[in-house]
């Protein structure tokens, strides 16, 4: 599973951080940081993050 966040769209709503805190986080400057290749066990939290993101900035590809 590969995760990509379009930083042009991302507005730091942080819904993804609540949904999948092991994959998404905000750094000290409130910039989004994320794991682009999370483990398979993170699939469901990541799926929720995709659905919750108000900016639709998260895309996931399998493989
Ligand atoms: S929920 Fe979407 S807009 Fe908000 S920080 Fe995460 S990726 Fe960015």
TrEMBL record:
Classification via InterPro entries: 3Fe4S_ferredoxin, Fe-S_cluster_ET
Keyword annotations from UniProtKB, A to Z: 3Fe-4S, Electron transport, Iron, Iron-sulfur, Metal-binding, Transport
Keyword Iron-sulfur among record annotations: yes
Gene3D superfamilies reported for this sequence: 3.30.70.20
Pfam family for this entry, one: Fer4_13
Cofactor(s) it depends on: [3Fe-4S] cluster
Iron found in the keyword field: yes
Function summary: Ferredoxins are iron-sulfur proteins that transfer electrons in a wide variety of metabolic reactions.
Protein name: Ferredoxin
Upper taxonomic lineage: Bacteria, Bacillati, Actinomycetota, Actinomycetes, Pseudonocardiales
């Amino acid at each position: 599973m590969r995760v990509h966040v379009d930083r042009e769209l991302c507005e730091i709503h942080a819904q993804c951080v609540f949904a999948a805190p092991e994959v998404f986080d905000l750094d000290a400057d409130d910039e989004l940081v994320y794991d682009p290749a999370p483990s398979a066990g993170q699939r469901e939290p990541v799926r929720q993050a995709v659905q919750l993101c108000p900016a639709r900035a998260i895309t996931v590809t399998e493989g």
